[in-house]
Amino acid sequence: MENSTAASSAAPRLRRTLTLWDLIFYGIVLIQPIAPVPLYGVAQKLSDGHFVTIILIALFAMLITAVSYGRMGALYPTAGSAYTYVGKGLNPHLGFLAGWAMILDYLLQPLINTVWISTALHERSESLHIPQLPFAVWAAIIAGVMTMLNLAGVKSSARANKVLLAVMSVVVALFVWLAVRYLFYGQGWAGLLSTEPFYNPRTFNSHRILTATSFAALTYIGFDGVTTLAEDVENPKRNVLLAVVLTCIFAGVCSGFEAYLGARVWPDWRSFPNLETAFMDICRRVGGVFLFNAMFVILGVAAFGSGLTGTLGAARLLFGMGRDGVLPRKFFGYLKPGSGTPTYNILLIGGLAFVGAVLLYHIGNAYEHAGELLNFGAFLAFMGVNFACFWQFSVIAKKAGRERHLLRDAILPIIGFLFCLVIWINLNAIAKTVGGIWFAVGLLYVGYKTNWFRSAPVMIDFSDS
User: Fold this and answer.
1) Cα separations in angstroms, 370 against 256, 375, 434
2) 292-312 burial, b for 16+ CB within 10 Å, e for fewer?
3) Would you state the pLDDT for residue 284?
4) How does pLDDT run across 299-354, given as a tens digit for each residue?
5) Alpha-carbon distances of 275 from 337, 368, 409, rounded to whole Å
6) Which of the residues in the chain have pLDDT under 50?
7) Considering the entire predicted model, what is its pTM?
8) Is 355 left (phi over 0), alpha (psi -120 to 50) or beta?
9) Is 378:82 a contact under the CB 8 Å cutoff?
10) Domains of the chain
Protein backbone atom coordinates (compact mmCIF):
# COMPACT_ATOMS: atom_id res chain seq x y z
CA MET A 1 0.00 0.00 0.00
CA GLU A 2 2.84 2.37 0.92
CA ASN A 3 4.67 1.57 -2.33
CA SER A 4 1.53 2.33 -4.28
CA THR A 5 1.17 5.68 -2.55
CA ALA A 6 4.80 6.54 -3.20
CA ALA A 7 4.44 5.65 -6.85
CA SER A 8 1.40 7.90 -7.13
CA SER A 9 3.19 10.84 -5.55
CA ALA A 10 6.14 10.36 -7.90
CA ALA A 11 3.90 10.84 -10.94
CA PRO A 12 2.69 14.45 -10.74
CA ARG A 13 1.27 14.30 -14.26
CA LEU A 14 -1.47 12.05 -12.88
CA ARG A 15 -2.58 14.51 -10.22
CA ARG A 16 -5.82 16.07 -11.35
CA THR A 17 -6.22 19.38 -9.55
CA LEU A 18 -8.09 21.67 -11.99
CA THR A 19 -11.83 22.08 -11.50
CA LEU A 20 -14.50 22.73 -14.11
CA TRP A 21 -14.44 26.45 -13.27
CA ASP A 22 -10.64 26.56 -13.70
CA LEU A 23 -11.10 25.25 -17.24
CA ILE A 24 -13.90 27.71 -18.02
CA PHE A 25 -11.79 30.63 -16.77
CA TYR A 26 -8.89 29.43 -18.91
CA GLY A 27 -11.20 29.30 -21.93
CA ILE A 28 -12.41 32.86 -21.27
CA VAL A 29 -8.78 34.04 -21.07
CA LEU A 30 -8.12 32.42 -24.46
CA ILE A 31 -11.19 33.85 -26.21
CA GLN A 32 -11.32 37.22 -24.35
CA PRO A 33 -14.51 39.24 -23.68
CA ILE A 34 -13.55 41.80 -26.36
CA ALA A 35 -13.33 39.17 -29.12
CA PRO A 36 -16.10 40.74 -31.31
CA VAL A 37 -14.82 44.32 -30.97
CA PRO A 38 -12.09 44.34 -33.68
CA LEU A 39 -14.37 42.31 -35.97
CA TYR A 40 -17.41 44.54 -35.60
CA GLY A 41 -17.27 46.92 -38.58
CA VAL A 42 -16.05 44.34 -41.10
CA ALA A 43 -18.62 41.78 -39.88
CA GLN A 44 -21.43 44.34 -40.17
CA LYS A 45 -20.39 45.06 -43.73
CA LEU A 46 -20.10 41.39 -44.72
CA SER A 47 -23.50 40.53 -43.22
CA ASP A 48 -25.30 43.75 -44.22
CA GLY A 49 -25.82 44.70 -40.59
CA HIS A 50 -26.49 41.21 -39.15
CA PHE A 51 -23.41 40.62 -36.99
CA VAL A 52 -25.58 39.41 -34.09
CA THR A 53 -27.23 36.83 -36.35
CA ILE A 54 -24.00 35.41 -37.72
CA ILE A 55 -22.53 35.21 -34.21
CA LEU A 56 -25.47 33.01 -33.21
CA ILE A 57 -25.25 30.88 -36.38
CA ALA A 58 -21.53 30.38 -35.77
CA LEU A 59 -22.36 29.49 -32.14
CA PHE A 60 -24.49 26.57 -33.36
CA ALA A 61 -21.58 25.19 -35.41
CA MET A 62 -19.09 25.81 -32.61
CA LEU A 63 -21.26 24.13 -29.96
CA ILE A 64 -21.47 20.88 -31.91
CA THR A 65 -17.76 21.10 -32.67
CA ALA A 66 -17.05 21.84 -29.00
CA VAL A 67 -18.87 18.63 -28.03
CA SER A 68 -16.67 16.71 -30.48
CA TYR A 69 -13.52 18.37 -29.08
CA GLY A 70 -14.59 17.57 -25.53
CA ARG A 71 -15.28 13.91 -26.27
CA MET A 72 -12.05 13.46 -28.23
CA GLY A 73 -10.13 15.30 -25.50
CA ALA A 74 -11.36 12.75 -22.98
CA LEU A 75 -10.15 9.94 -25.29
CA TYR A 76 -6.75 11.48 -26.07
CA PRO A 77 -5.73 13.89 -23.26
CA THR A 78 -2.51 15.17 -24.85
CA ALA A 79 -1.23 18.35 -26.50
CA GLY A 80 -1.94 18.83 -30.18
CA SER A 81 -5.71 19.17 -30.11
CA ALA A 82 -7.12 18.65 -33.64
CA TYR A 83 -3.81 17.19 -34.86
CA THR A 84 -3.87 14.50 -32.18
CA TYR A 85 -7.60 13.77 -32.49
CA VAL A 86 -7.53 13.37 -36.28
CA GLY A 87 -4.22 11.51 -36.30
CA LYS A 88 -5.21 9.00 -33.63
CA GLY A 89 -8.93 8.99 -34.29
CA LEU A 90 -8.80 8.66 -38.09
CA ASN A 91 -5.43 8.30 -39.78
CA PRO A 92 -1.84 9.54 -39.13
CA HIS A 93 -1.57 11.08 -42.61
CA LEU A 94 -4.84 12.97 -42.18
CA GLY A 95 -3.60 13.98 -38.74
CA PHE A 96 -0.47 15.45 -40.31
CA LEU A 97 -2.62 17.47 -42.72
CA ALA A 98 -4.75 18.72 -39.80
CA GLY A 99 -1.50 19.73 -38.08
CA TRP A 100 -0.34 21.41 -41.30
CA ALA A 101 -3.58 23.43 -41.32
CA MET A 102 -2.98 24.36 -37.66
CA ILE A 103 0.54 25.57 -38.52
CA LEU A 104 -1.01 28.05 -40.95
CA ASP A 105 -3.11 29.42 -38.09
CA TYR A 106 -0.02 29.74 -35.88
CA LEU A 107 1.77 31.71 -38.59
CA LEU A 108 -1.25 33.94 -39.20
CA GLN A 109 -1.74 34.99 -35.54
CA PRO A 110 1.12 37.56 -35.64
CA LEU A 111 -0.05 38.71 -39.09
CA ILE A 112 -3.68 39.41 -38.16
CA ASN A 113 -2.61 41.33 -35.05
CA THR A 114 -0.04 43.33 -37.02
CA VAL A 115 -2.76 44.22 -39.54
CA TRP A 116 -5.21 45.44 -36.89
CA ILE A 117 -2.74 47.52 -34.87
CA SER A 118 -1.15 49.04 -37.99
CA THR A 119 -4.56 49.88 -39.48
CA ALA A 120 -5.74 51.49 -36.25
CA LEU A 121 -2.60 53.60 -35.89
CA HIS A 122 -2.58 54.58 -39.57
CA GLU A 123 -6.28 55.41 -39.89
CA ARG A 124 -6.73 56.95 -36.43
CA SER A 125 -3.52 58.92 -36.07
CA GLU A 126 -5.36 62.26 -35.86
CA SER A 127 -7.83 61.05 -33.21
CA LEU A 128 -5.00 59.47 -31.20
CA HIS A 129 -2.74 62.53 -31.55
CA ILE A 130 0.17 60.55 -33.01
CA PRO A 131 2.27 61.14 -36.16
CA GLN A 132 0.59 60.18 -39.42
CA LEU A 133 2.76 57.51 -41.02
CA PRO A 134 2.20 55.21 -44.02
CA PHE A 135 0.67 51.81 -43.25
CA ALA A 136 3.86 50.00 -44.30
CA VAL A 137 5.87 52.00 -41.76
CA TRP A 138 3.47 51.13 -38.93
CA ALA A 139 3.51 47.47 -40.03
CA ALA A 140 7.32 47.47 -39.98
CA ILE A 141 7.35 49.05 -36.51
CA ILE A 142 4.80 46.63 -35.02
CA ALA A 143 6.26 43.47 -36.61
CA GLY A 144 9.77 44.71 -35.78
CA VAL A 145 9.02 45.34 -32.09
CA MET A 146 7.33 41.94 -31.73
CA THR A 147 10.34 40.30 -33.35
CA MET A 148 12.92 42.13 -31.23
CA LEU A 149 11.09 41.41 -27.98
CA ASN A 150 10.90 37.72 -28.80
CA LEU A 151 14.58 37.67 -29.79
CA ALA A 152 15.33 39.23 -26.41
CA GLY A 153 13.35 36.48 -24.71
CA VAL A 154 10.46 38.67 -23.53
CA LYS A 155 7.09 36.93 -23.29
CA SER A 156 3.79 37.63 -21.60
CA SER A 157 3.07 35.87 -18.33
CA ALA A 158 -0.08 34.17 -17.11
CA ARG A 159 -0.40 36.85 -14.41
CA ALA A 160 -0.26 39.62 -17.03
CA ASN A 161 -3.00 37.86 -19.01
CA LYS A 162 -5.22 37.70 -15.93
CA VAL A 163 -4.69 41.39 -15.21
CA LEU A 164 -5.48 42.23 -18.84
CA LEU A 165 -8.62 40.08 -18.67
CA ALA A 166 -9.77 41.93 -15.55
CA VAL A 167 -9.21 45.35 -17.18
CA MET A 168 -10.99 44.17 -20.36
CA SER A 169 -13.96 43.05 -18.31
CA VAL A 170 -14.16 46.45 -16.60
CA VAL A 171 -14.04 48.32 -19.92
CA VAL A 172 -16.68 46.01 -21.47
CA ALA A 173 -18.93 46.43 -18.41
CA LEU A 174 -18.49 50.22 -18.65
CA PHE A 175 -19.42 50.13 -22.34
CA VAL A 176 -22.55 48.04 -21.63
CA TRP A 177 -23.70 50.41 -18.89
CA LEU A 178 -23.07 53.56 -20.96
CA ALA A 179 -24.67 52.04 -24.10
CA VAL A 180 -27.82 50.99 -22.21
CA ARG A 181 -27.97 54.43 -20.57
CA TYR A 182 -27.50 56.16 -23.96
CA LEU A 183 -30.23 54.11 -25.65
CA PHE A 184 -32.75 54.28 -22.82
CA TYR A 185 -32.45 58.01 -22.20
CA GLY A 186 -32.46 58.73 -25.94
CA GLN A 187 -35.25 56.44 -27.17
CA GLY A 188 -36.71 54.64 -24.16
CA TRP A 189 -37.52 50.95 -24.39
CA ALA A 190 -37.81 51.21 -28.18
CA GLY A 191 -34.11 52.02 -28.33
CA LEU A 192 -33.14 49.06 -26.18
CA LEU A 193 -35.45 46.42 -27.62
CA SER A 194 -35.48 45.73 -31.35
CA THR A 195 -35.36 42.78 -33.74
CA GLU A 196 -33.41 44.66 -36.43
CA PRO A 197 -29.94 43.49 -35.31
CA PHE A 198 -31.23 39.92 -35.73
CA TYR A 199 -33.28 40.37 -38.88
CA ASN A 200 -33.70 43.41 -41.09
CA PRO A 201 -35.90 42.51 -44.10
CA ARG A 202 -34.51 45.45 -46.09
CA THR A 203 -30.93 44.11 -46.09
CA PHE A 204 -31.14 40.40 -45.22
CA ASN A 205 -29.36 38.21 -47.80
CA SER A 206 -28.91 34.51 -47.02
CA HIS A 207 -25.82 34.11 -49.21
CA ARG A 208 -24.06 37.03 -47.57
CA ILE A 209 -25.06 35.70 -44.15
CA LEU A 210 -23.37 32.36 -44.90
CA THR A 211 -20.28 34.10 -46.25
CA ALA A 212 -20.07 36.38 -43.21
CA THR A 213 -20.57 33.54 -40.71
CA SER A 214 -17.06 32.26 -41.43
CA PHE A 215 -15.69 35.65 -40.35
CA ALA A 216 -17.87 35.76 -37.22
CA ALA A 217 -16.40 32.40 -36.20
CA LEU A 218 -13.22 34.31 -35.28
CA THR A 219 -15.14 35.24 -32.13
CA TYR A 220 -14.75 31.66 -30.93
CA ILE A 221 -11.20 30.91 -32.04
CA GLY A 222 -9.24 29.53 -29.08
CA PHE A 223 -11.99 27.53 -27.35
CA ASP A 224 -10.25 24.27 -28.31
CA GLY A 225 -7.26 25.26 -26.16
CA VAL A 226 -9.25 24.07 -23.14
CA THR A 227 -8.75 20.47 -24.26
CA THR A 228 -4.96 20.74 -23.79
CA LEU A 229 -5.51 20.67 -20.01
CA ALA A 230 -7.35 17.34 -20.09
CA GLU A 231 -4.52 15.56 -18.23
CA ASP A 232 -4.74 17.96 -15.29
CA VAL A 233 -8.48 18.28 -14.70
CA GLU A 234 -10.74 16.40 -12.33
CA ASN A 235 -13.12 13.96 -14.05
CA PRO A 236 -11.93 14.82 -17.61
CA LYS A 237 -14.66 12.87 -19.41
CA ARG A 238 -17.26 15.19 -17.88
CA ASN A 239 -15.41 18.45 -17.22
CA VAL A 240 -13.51 18.87 -20.51
CA LEU A 241 -16.73 18.48 -22.48
CA LEU A 242 -18.66 20.85 -20.21
CA ALA A 243 -15.85 23.42 -20.21
CA VAL A 244 -15.53 23.72 -24.00
CA VAL A 245 -19.32 23.91 -24.40
CA LEU A 246 -19.77 26.51 -21.64
CA THR A 247 -16.80 28.52 -22.96
CA CYS A 248 -18.47 28.67 -26.39
CA ILE A 249 -21.80 29.67 -24.85
CA PHE A 250 -20.11 32.43 -22.84
CA ALA A 251 -18.35 33.70 -25.97
CA GLY A 252 -21.57 33.63 -28.01
CA VAL A 253 -23.77 35.34 -25.41
CA CYS A 254 -21.16 37.97 -24.47
CA SER A 255 -20.21 38.72 -28.09
CA GLY A 256 -23.80 38.74 -29.26
CA PHE A 257 -24.83 41.20 -26.53
CA GLU A 258 -21.93 43.56 -27.33
CA ALA A 259 -22.75 43.39 -31.06
CA TYR A 260 -26.46 43.97 -30.34
CA LEU A 261 -25.77 47.13 -28.33
CA GLY A 262 -23.36 48.34 -31.00
CA ALA A 263 -25.99 47.86 -33.70
CA ARG A 264 -28.57 49.80 -31.68
CA VAL A 265 -26.20 52.66 -30.87
CA TRP A 266 -25.00 52.95 -34.49
CA PRO A 267 -27.65 51.38 -36.79
CA ASP A 268 -26.12 52.47 -40.12
CA TRP A 269 -22.82 50.59 -40.47
CA ARG A 270 -22.21 52.30 -43.83
CA SER A 271 -21.45 55.57 -42.08
CA PHE A 272 -18.44 54.33 -40.07
CA PRO A 273 -15.28 56.35 -40.84
CA ASN A 274 -13.25 53.12 -40.77
CA LEU A 275 -14.58 49.55 -40.55
CA GLU A 276 -11.56 48.04 -38.77
CA THR A 277 -11.95 50.44 -35.84
CA ALA A 278 -15.73 50.93 -36.01
CA PHE A 279 -16.46 49.85 -32.45
CA MET A 280 -14.23 52.62 -31.13
CA ASP A 281 -16.58 55.14 -32.79
CA ILE A 282 -19.50 53.48 -31.03
CA CYS A 283 -17.59 53.83 -27.75
CA ARG A 284 -17.01 57.52 -28.45
CA ARG A 285 -20.74 58.02 -29.11
CA VAL A 286 -21.81 56.52 -25.76
CA GLY A 287 -18.80 57.34 -23.56
CA GLY A 288 -16.91 60.19 -25.18
CA VAL A 289 -13.16 60.44 -25.62
CA PHE A 290 -12.45 58.53 -22.39
CA LEU A 291 -14.18 55.31 -23.50
CA PHE A 292 -12.79 55.72 -27.04
CA ASN A 293 -9.23 55.84 -25.69
CA ALA A 294 -9.82 53.11 -23.10
CA MET A 295 -11.13 50.70 -25.74
CA PHE A 296 -8.25 51.52 -28.08
CA VAL A 297 -5.64 50.90 -25.37
CA ILE A 298 -7.25 47.59 -24.36
CA LEU A 299 -7.56 46.43 -27.98
CA GLY A 300 -4.02 47.52 -28.80
CA VAL A 301 -2.46 45.84 -25.77
CA ALA A 302 -4.50 42.65 -26.32
CA ALA A 303 -3.59 42.51 -30.02
CA PHE A 304 0.08 43.20 -29.32
CA GLY A 305 0.18 40.59 -26.56
CA SER A 306 -1.55 38.07 -28.81
CA GLY A 307 0.89 38.81 -31.63
CA LEU A 308 3.85 38.53 -29.26
CA THR A 309 2.82 35.17 -27.83
CA GLY A 310 1.65 34.01 -31.26
CA THR A 311 5.10 34.71 -32.72
CA LEU A 312 6.77 32.78 -29.91
CA GLY A 313 4.32 29.88 -30.18
CA ALA A 314 4.80 29.63 -33.95
CA ALA A 315 8.59 29.86 -33.59
CA ARG A 316 8.63 27.07 -31.00
CA LEU A 317 6.40 24.91 -33.17
CA LEU A 318 8.67 25.36 -36.20
CA PHE A 319 11.69 24.63 -34.02
CA GLY A 320 10.11 21.39 -32.78
CA MET A 321 9.41 20.37 -36.37
CA GLY A 322 12.98 21.18 -37.35
CA ARG A 323 14.45 19.34 -34.36
CA ASP A 324 12.36 16.23 -35.13
CA GLY A 325 13.14 16.26 -38.84
CA VAL A 326 9.67 17.22 -40.03
CA LEU A 327 11.18 20.40 -41.54
CA PRO A 328 14.83 21.04 -42.57
CA ARG A 329 16.81 20.84 -39.30
CA LYS A 330 19.62 23.26 -40.22
CA PHE A 331 17.30 26.27 -40.44
CA PHE A 332 14.20 25.46 -38.41
CA GLY A 333 16.02 23.48 -35.72
CA TYR A 334 18.56 26.23 -35.01
CA LEU A 335 18.85 27.71 -31.50
CA LYS A 336 21.02 30.72 -30.72
CA PRO A 337 23.94 29.48 -28.56
CA GLY A 338 23.61 30.44 -24.93
CA SER A 339 20.05 31.75 -25.16
CA GLY A 340 18.02 28.81 -26.48
CA THR A 341 16.13 31.22 -28.78
CA PRO A 342 14.91 29.92 -32.18
CA THR A 343 16.32 33.02 -33.86
CA TYR A 344 15.79 32.10 -37.51
CA ASN A 345 12.17 31.11 -36.91
CA ILE A 346 11.36 34.35 -35.06
CA LEU A 347 12.92 36.41 -37.85
CA LEU A 348 11.03 34.40 -40.48
CA ILE A 349 7.68 34.88 -38.72
CA GLY A 350 8.30 38.60 -38.20
CA GLY A 351 9.14 38.97 -41.89
CA LEU A 352 6.01 37.07 -42.91
CA ALA A 353 3.87 39.27 -40.64
CA PHE A 354 5.26 42.45 -42.20
CA VAL A 355 5.15 41.30 -45.84
CA GLY A 356 1.72 39.71 -45.43
CA ALA A 357 0.26 42.82 -43.78
CA VAL A 358 1.55 45.11 -46.53
CA LEU A 359 0.34 42.82 -49.33
CA LEU A 360 -3.13 42.47 -47.80
CA TYR A 361 -3.34 46.23 -47.24
CA HIS A 362 -2.61 46.88 -50.91
CA ILE A 363 -5.19 44.28 -51.99
CA GLY A 364 -7.73 45.98 -49.71
CA ASN A 365 -9.83 44.79 -46.75
CA ALA A 366 -6.66 43.55 -45.06
CA TYR A 367 -8.21 42.53 -41.73
CA GLU A 368 -11.07 40.69 -43.42
CA HIS A 369 -8.69 38.68 -45.61
CA ALA A 370 -6.36 37.90 -42.71
CA GLY A 371 -9.29 36.63 -40.64
CA GLU A 372 -10.67 34.49 -43.45
CA LEU A 373 -7.20 33.02 -44.06
CA LEU A 374 -6.97 32.07 -40.41
CA ASN A 375 -10.38 30.40 -40.66
CA PHE A 376 -9.25 28.30 -43.63
CA GLY A 377 -7.05 26.21 -41.36
CA ALA A 378 -9.34 26.45 -38.34
CA PHE A 379 -12.40 25.05 -40.12
CA LEU A 380 -10.41 22.28 -41.76
CA ALA A 381 -9.37 21.27 -38.24
CA PHE A 382 -12.97 21.58 -36.99
CA MET A 383 -14.21 19.32 -39.79
CA GLY A 384 -11.50 16.79 -39.02
CA VAL A 385 -12.36 16.66 -35.31
CA ASN A 386 -16.09 16.28 -35.99
CA PHE A 387 -15.47 13.41 -38.40
CA ALA A 388 -12.95 11.79 -36.05
CA CYS A 389 -15.57 11.93 -33.28
CA PHE A 390 -18.14 10.29 -35.56
CA TRP A 391 -15.62 7.60 -36.57
CA GLN A 392 -14.47 6.80 -33.03
CA PHE A 393 -17.81 6.80 -31.27
CA SER A 394 -19.96 5.39 -34.06
CA VAL A 395 -17.95 3.22 -36.45
CA ILE A 396 -15.16 2.00 -34.13
CA ALA A 397 -17.52 1.65 -31.17
CA LYS A 398 -19.84 -0.52 -33.26
CA LYS A 399 -16.95 -2.77 -34.32
CA ALA A 400 -15.84 -3.12 -30.70
CA GLY A 401 -19.36 -4.07 -29.64
CA ARG A 402 -19.80 -1.03 -27.39
CA GLU A 403 -23.20 0.56 -26.92
CA ARG A 404 -23.82 3.41 -29.34
CA HIS A 405 -26.09 6.44 -29.01
CA LEU A 406 -27.23 7.42 -32.53
CA LEU A 407 -27.85 11.14 -31.91
CA ARG A 408 -24.75 11.81 -29.81
CA ASP A 409 -22.32 9.49 -31.58
CA ALA A 410 -23.35 9.79 -35.24
CA ILE A 411 -25.87 12.50 -36.07
CA LEU A 412 -24.43 15.44 -34.11
CA PRO A 413 -20.79 15.10 -35.27
CA ILE A 414 -21.91 14.67 -38.89
CA ILE A 415 -24.12 17.78 -38.61
CA GLY A 416 -21.12 19.62 -37.13
CA PHE A 417 -18.91 18.41 -39.99
CA LEU A 418 -21.42 19.51 -42.65
CA PHE A 419 -22.10 22.86 -40.99
CA CYS A 420 -18.37 23.62 -40.78
CA LEU A 421 -17.98 22.47 -44.40
CA VAL A 422 -20.66 24.92 -45.58
CA ILE A 423 -18.97 27.78 -43.70
CA TRP A 424 -15.55 26.74 -45.05
CA ILE A 425 -16.85 26.60 -48.64
CA ASN A 426 -18.15 30.16 -48.25
CA LEU A 427 -14.74 31.60 -47.37
CA ASN A 428 -13.62 34.29 -49.79
CA ALA A 429 -11.55 33.53 -52.90
CA ILE A 430 -8.25 34.83 -51.49
CA ALA A 431 -8.53 32.63 -48.39
CA LYS A 432 -9.35 29.55 -50.46
CA THR A 433 -6.56 30.26 -52.95
CA VAL A 434 -3.78 30.91 -50.44
CA GLY A 435 -5.04 28.25 -48.05
CA GLY A 436 -5.45 25.77 -50.89
CA ILE A 437 -1.85 26.32 -51.98
CA TRP A 438 -0.67 25.82 -48.40
CA PHE A 439 -2.70 22.61 -48.07
CA ALA A 440 -1.45 21.30 -51.43
CA VAL A 441 2.15 21.90 -50.34
CA GLY A 442 1.42 19.99 -47.12
CA LEU A 443 -0.13 17.10 -49.06
CA LEU A 444 2.88 16.83 -51.40
CA TYR A 445 5.29 17.20 -48.47
CA VAL A 446 3.76 14.45 -46.34
CA GLY A 447 3.53 12.25 -49.43
CA TYR A 448 7.22 12.75 -50.16
CA LYS A 449 8.28 12.22 -46.51
CA THR A 450 6.27 8.97 -46.19
CA ASN A 451 7.27 7.34 -49.48
CA TRP A 452 3.90 8.35 -50.90
CA PHE A 453 1.85 7.33 -47.88
CA ARG A 454 3.46 3.89 -47.42
CA SER A 455 4.81 4.77 -43.95
CA ALA A 456 3.55 6.85 -41.03
CA PRO A 457 4.52 10.54 -40.98
CA VAL A 458 6.84 12.00 -38.34
CA MET A 459 4.79 13.31 -35.43
CA ILE A 460 4.51 17.08 -34.92
CA ASP A 461 5.08 18.11 -31.31
CA PHE A 462 2.59 20.85 -30.33
CA SER A 463 3.31 20.57 -26.60
CA ASP A 464 5.63 23.60 -26.32
CA SER A 465 3.87 25.90 -28.79
Assistant:
1) 22, 9, 11
2) bbbbbebbbbbbbbbbbbbbb
3) 93
4) 888 888 888 878 888 888 888 888 877 788 889 888 888 777 889 999 999 999 99
5) 45, 10, 42
6) 1-14
7) 0.82
8) alpha
9) no
10) 14-449 (1.20.1740.10)
